[in-house]
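Reading group handout, session on sequence-to-structure problems. Before we discuss, look at one worked example. The prompt was deliberately terse, the way you'd type it at a terminal:

> structure Amidase

The input record follows.
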Amino acid sequence: MTELWELGAWDLAKLIREGQASCGEVVEAHLRRIDQVNPRVNAVTATLGDEARAAASAADAARARGEDVGPLCGVPLTVKENIEVAGSATTLGIAALKDARAHADAPPVAELRAAGAIPIGRTNMPEFGMRWHTDNALRGATVNPWSAGHTPGGSSGGEAVAVATGMSPLGIGNDGAGSLRWPAQCCGVSALKPTLGRVAQVGEEAGPTPFAFQLLGVHGPIARHVRDLRLAFDHMCGRPGGDPWHAPAPLDGPPPPVPLRVCVVTDLDGAETAPEVAGALTRAARILGENGYLIEEGRAPALTRASEIFTQIMSAYGRVHREQPPVEAIASPGFVRFWQEFEPVWTRAAGEQAFDPMMERASIARLWSAWMSRTPLVLAPIRTRPAFPVGSDLDSRWLADWPETMRTAVAVNLLGLPSVAVPVGHAGSLPQAVQIIGPRFREDLCLAAAAVIEAATGTPTPIDPR
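And the output record:
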């Protein structure tokens, strides 16, 4: 018999809507799953049990009265610790912020709550969201349920693990440099990085946000099923909050030309692609081709320069204050070591300094727009290599080519494009995934293609930690 925690958000919402399960039963099933599994993976950092039970009880009572309870009524939701949930700490993985409780929900959390979703927990992240492995002094390390010796990814690593293990059917994280898509690749789940401006980044009570994070970062959902991404996305985009970038564009664009062209990016400006990643790309391309998409191979324009401009903008405009406190004063020894090893690599990755990075960004965006006007979808690696062994990112020699391996991920952030990460089978003990990139505000095209891949390959989660 299928347990409630094994079901996705869409299925749970349907069961509740049809009266086959109560909100209370669904919430309790996931709270029990957290109790059983989280001690082994350390993904959920704070359980909102009392609040969730009260919300479920109120929702069940409203349903009994025949009230409109919303399309996500009773669906449990977990939220990364750098997104505001009213009454819960927004820690950013930093010990000094362990009691920094939010007074209000961030706009997408408020929207999902209004649609009936019930926050049940917060999830782990690396300090500042600035490491590709999830560990910090406040909460400790999160464990990849597929292989404890490999990273779960970062910075939304806690969310990816919570969803992969069935502790949550739906999670909210964010992506400023692949931080949704990379953990999805490591943990075998799906994720949507929306177009810049789709989902409000900040609420009206939020403090200052550095320009780099306004431009490069977005909130988005993680789930086990592509249709759950769409269900969440449909209810995350309406509230502008205090975000000046918010753009209330239609969620669906005009019908695309048929057959829809897909460019498979296999040449990443010389970056080496691991055989297992290349195999996932080949399989995904074959599935799309067998389902009516027109597959071509090609190169992404100005890919290396896009990565360099991304690095320059993040370096110059990624701070809240002109003078930052020493990292040793606020971060764990692990993060300090990581940054000491990575800073020279990061500095080299900036390439030749642009006279005006935003001017170059616009030029690159025009190149991509012209390219994608002919091939609207791009099939590419998230990272050109699979999940790495824990501790690898503390070695400067291992880190030396990291920026090259993430070029397609950060180009998407630089240009504000939508992308869906979707699993494509396994290689050894680890899941593999690809990303489907689309034109601005065409998440619908990305999600539709991802659903085709998922239908052919299945969903590898939820799993018990191995």
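Points for discussion. First: The chain has a mean pLDDT of 96. Second: The radius of gyration is 21 Å.
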